[in-house]
Amino acid sequence: MSDPTLFSAGFNGRPTGSDALFRSFWMAGYEGADHVNSAGVQLSMNEANHHWQRLESDYALLAQFGIRTVRESIGWRVTEQMGDAGFARLRAHAELAEKQGIEVIWTLMHYGWPADIDLLSPAFVQRFAAFAEKVAMTLRGVSDSQRFYQPVNEISFLSWALSATGLMQHAMRDPSWANGPAVKLQLVRAALRACEVIEQRDPAARFMHSDPLIHVVPPPDAPFELVQAARSHSDAVFEAWDMLSGRAEPQLGGSARHLGIVGINYYHDNQWMLQGDGPLHWHLGDPRRKPLHHLIEAIRQRYQAPMLLAETSHVGEGRGQWLDDVAREVMLCRKSGMPLEGICLYPIVDRHGWDDVSHWHNSGLWEVEVPCAGAGQSPYERILCRPYAEQLWRWQEHLPGGPRPTAEVSSL
Asked: What residue ranges do the domains of the chain occupy?
């Protein structure tokens, strides 16, 4: 049941208008990872689900939801590998977005990097800065609109994935990657240097840095050491943001300007028990879960910066209910005055697994008609998930967004 106090006095959050940070509160995120997976396969997720091939029609679909702000990944590895053609593609992408009135938050590095660079070498930072400069020059040449950049996607997650898992098997892998703090420092160093060169070429640029927001609890009747360990795991989410903002490792040169907008990535499995065998189940209402608005309040108090729910979604039949729960939490955030500037549905178009290309997650607002031998369907056609769409239309009446296109959605 809906909480009537959320909707009292016509509350609709801060209106989307001249004081809004983005063109639309509701946003679409396109999965763009381009790393090398555990089997050594080079991924390009924007090509795998045909987003780059269907860019114009993908953007046209957003109009029915009033979405005018999107997150896109340029892909350092993919784009540099393409040479001049990569930047020509980027320019054409930006021109199409401008033509359709779409504002883009551009991610430069989405896990992948060129194969001939050692991650922990000075050349990594220098080469990334050169790439960032070329990106800024390309995008600024398209229009005078303000641009948003995320230099490195999910620094904390990427540091963990590279140092503690086998999810990514880039070339020139080195045992030194096992040093997670060193990897995180290097990625922050690269992100800060990219911010500096982007500002030189695009002085009005705004920055966003996203990472997963997590909550870890100790096992029942845990000793003090495990209670502290669980707290340390939860607090690790702040490390990259602290360095980017200058709160930690000030010799790196971070500042509030570099941090910019805090991007919060939040999924059903972002809360778990230390030494457990899975998440604190959202769909079962695990009482150890902490409400999302409490987690976001901690970020507000720490950074006093604009925030964006930069990634959120669920899979299968749970997509609509997940959006309903998240939107209620966001409503509480905004009602208490938190500067939460938007919700990005990520991915907006379905994607396959990183390691299993035959497994599609059914996680998008639009699913993908996967080609099948002998079938007559149009390959990669977009199929709207109706329960998800209906929750989005419903919540756009109470959180800022485009007008509901029809009266078919049931009332609150």
From this structure: 4-395
Q: CA geometry: angle at 19 spanning 15 and 24, to 5°? A: 60
pLDDT band at 401 (very low <50, low <70, confident <90, very high): low
Domain 4-395, CATH homologous superfamily name and number? Glycosidases (3.20.20.80)
Pairwise CA distance, residues 33 & 348, whole Å: 14
SS3 state of residue 213: coil
CA–CA distance, 311 with 211 (Å, rounded to integer): 9
Each residue's pLDDT tens digit, 18-63? 589 999 999 999 999 999 999 999 999 999 999 999 999 999 999 9
Summary mean pLDDT of the chain: 91
State which H helix or E strand residue 78 sits in.
Answer: helix 76-82
Alpha-carbon span 126 to 114, nearest angstrom: 13
Pairwise CA distance, residues 275 & 93, whole Å: 45
pLDDT at residue 123 in the model? 96
- Closest of 255, 125, 120 to residue 189, by C-alpha: 125
**Residue among 124, 130, 72, 76 at smallest CA distance from 103:** 72
Which residue type, as a one-letter code, is found at position 336? S
